[in-house]
């Protein structure tokens, strides 16, 4: 039996595949989806400007909680020939007066003074008791998150006459102590300043707020999307006392991550956050949000684009019945199930881009994915014509406007009197989104977009 020449076999194959009266079946190889896609899709360094205000009432509350009973004690008489104890006997009141803080403190003061000379033991000690209300006027600053005051005593109001201990008995000395009260004023004021600085350290509260804000929160339950913020540096300007509030600009340099899958861990470490003093702060916040489209939803939308449309040239026409999408090696694979002059599936590859005007994801540099034997080329050469591919490409697009709206909607609750902890309130505004880039994962297309806005933090009513 004679062998059929190779060229004759090739002609028979072409005749059977390109019959004009029947459809042809495509048997092309399906590109396998990528599997080695990392779970962290976005890391960006952002700056968040958060003007902060602390009410005098809040400082008053913190001062009263931290200062109770005995607030100062000095038992060493050898250093300055005096001992002193100061007790708080009532509620401290703070008010603003001419740009300064006026403090009204109910106090009890006990002091022992040593006087005389050491020569031949000619010295003695006396104990003085004072019980009343002291009014201080203070220049206040917030330095390194601690409230520093430079106070002077404005007034003493005695609830009991000052006494001195003589022979075991308390003898009233109001007529003596009032003219010589200046001896005590500077020392008592300094001790009050020390107590205020020690009790009004707001750095731990700022770190508590940052820790709460660093807790990852879910932005989309359906797509298992999480947002995570990692503080890097905290900046603060000098504090200003205005309208019974201490105001300052707080700036936060941080990285923001958008993650898909299981809830990420809170990796906040308060020991590594750096605090820096600055003279001026930018007045806007920049944040990044992910608009996520699963391949299933994108495929469904693109399939609708092809409904009722024919593609072809001459007598050859095809109709796309279904579209499937997945990722492979950083590109999109678009699978088109078709009927007509050719039946079966063809596979296209393309790179996703974003049209900022139409708010659509589309695919550029689109081309056919051919198997190694070139069967597709021989089966349907006319599909490779640029005009047909261009017509198909025009329909491989979909809008993410709803995703953008949903992304903005998910962020708004965190800008509307959001309280990460009791007594701390965050408010702000957000501008429209601007597109940044598109990334492909093993189950979704993620369009990363940035937004700018403003935020402010108010501290009032902390526990």
Largest sheet, strands/sense/barrel: 11 strands, mixed
Can you tell me the overall shape?
rod-shaped
Mean pLDDT: 78
Number of strands: 25
Structural class: alpha+beta
Radius of gyration: 38 Å
Q: Quickly count the domains.
A: 3
Total number of helical segments?
A: 9
Uncertain spans: 1-22
Strand content: over 45%
Report the end-to-end length measured between terminal Cα atoms: 100 Å
| Helix amount | 10-25%
Salient structural properties:
463 residues, alpha+beta, Bactericidal permeability-increasing protein, domain 1, 3 domains, eleven-stranded mixed sheet, rod-shaped, disordered N terminus
Your description of this structure?
The chain has 3 domains: 23-36 and 298-396, no CATH class; 40-54 and 203-294 and 402-459, no CATH class; 56-199, Bactericidal permeability-increasing protein, domain 1, CATH 3.15.10. The chain has 463 residues and is an alpha+beta fold. The strands form 3 sheets. Strands 2, 10, 11, 12, 13, 14, 15, 22, 23, 24 and 25 form an 11-stranded mixed beta sheet that branches. Strands 1, 16, 17, 18, 19, 20 and 21 form a 7-stranded mixed beta sheet that branches. Strands 3, 4, 5, 6, 7, 8 and 9 form a 7-stranded antiparallel beta sheet that branches. The radius of gyration is 38 Å and the shape is rod-shaped. The N and C termini lie far apart (100 Å). Helices cover 20% and strands 51% of the residues.
